[in-house]
Amino acid sequence: MSLSVSAPAPAAPVVGSRRHGTGFWLIAFAFLTAMAFSTVPTPLYPLYMARDGFSTFMVTVVFAAYAVGVVISLLLAGHVSDWVGRRRVLLPALLLELVAAALFLVSTDLTVLLVARLVTGLGVGLVTATATAHLAELHAAHRPGAPAQRFEMVSTAANIGGLGFGPLVAGFLAQWVGAPLRTPYLVFAVLLLLALAAVLIAPETVTRPEVTPAYRPQRISADGDPAGYLAAAAAAFTGFSVFGLFTSVAPGFVAGTLHHPSRALAGLIVFAVFGAAASAQTLTAALPAGLKMTAGLVAEVAGLLVLVAGAHAQSLALFLIGGVLAGVGAGVLFKAAVGTVVATAAPAKRGEALAGLFLIGYLGLIGPALGIGVAVRSLDTTTVLTWFAGLLLVLLAGVGVLNRRRSGR
């Protein structure tokens, strides 16, 4: 047993502080870099498969190691920045990613790869909720009383856009630069060092309490609006399931079934999906929350249907169009989810609420990705993708029902 002590509210910074405005963009850069590094291996998986004889199932196990690391980190420490401070969590998170980069550079052995992905996940789990909360507070300090649209756009673009930026850079480096399984990690090691410097410069936004609250693992906080939190969590789960598909087995499917082995193309496809997600978040910024959720649902449903059609027709163009549409839907759904949680959670519980949201989202990465990896051992990939899409359509229908009930209330 442990005593429950409320976390302190963030400090009240100087109104309109220029330092907080600069810090906002520094943290955005660090957030983008951390998320981009997490998807660097995506276009490289076929190279690992060819080099060491990995199966598609083993690729999903490696991917799951990353997602497990994220979940562990979110459960154990994703919320502690509410009382120890944002920078005190972001700095060790980036150091963990530097350790992972060093592991990737040292060896391409499967065991090392699994450990490196696990360590990457541990770092990302610390970054996601902490950087999002930090950006929200820096935005409020720099522009007191201003709408949260800038924060929502930048934070989700750094998160989702970063996930697409990593494969794009890694894919092009692997295609046209020597040592394709090491050069991308070296480039991102340098960027991570710059991200560490950015966090050191940025101002803190949390005042540490005189008495540190008793530690406990992460709880999923639905403070303020339980119905809204449930709808947001379900939307995050379905959106991350789509992202999990494109950061695990999709590059291998394009290289094998669709017969397009280019690493640059693999990175470009993943970038297109996440880039579409980030762009859609910007374009829908002015939409009301309910309409935003509906638009995301429609786009993701349409994308999944086109994606399946492209897989059956073995058409790269249809597969890409479906992926972009599904990415648009997933991005809009995730943006609506983050906005809902930030708007309804109490400031002292904002990090906890966001950590819970990301925890549920990353569970959406693990389950479907592992399920696909297991299924392709006995079924062809096209059939597995069809069943995957069908299950997601059922989940999306559930999100629609939850959103309609919340809107009705």
Automatic annotation (TrEMBL):
Q: Which regions span the lipid bilayer?
A: 24-48, 54-77, 89-108, 114-136, 157-179, 185-206, 227-253, 265-287, 294-313, 319-342, 354-376, 382-402
What does the UniProt entry say about where the protein is found?
Cell membrane
- Membrane topology type: Multi-pass membrane protein
Q: Mind telling me which Pfam families this protein's record contains?
A: MFS_1
Domain Major facilitator superfamily (MFS) profile residue range list: 22-409
Q: Which domain of life is it from?
A: Bacteria
**What UniProt keywords apply to this chain's record, in alphabetical order?**
Cell membrane, Membrane, Transmembrane, Transmembrane helix, Transport
Q: Is Membrane included in the keywords of this UniProt record?
A: yes
InterPro entries recorded for this chain? MFS, MFS_dom, MFS_trans_sf, MFS_Transporters
Recorded protein name is: MFS transporter
Native organism is: Kineosporia corallincola
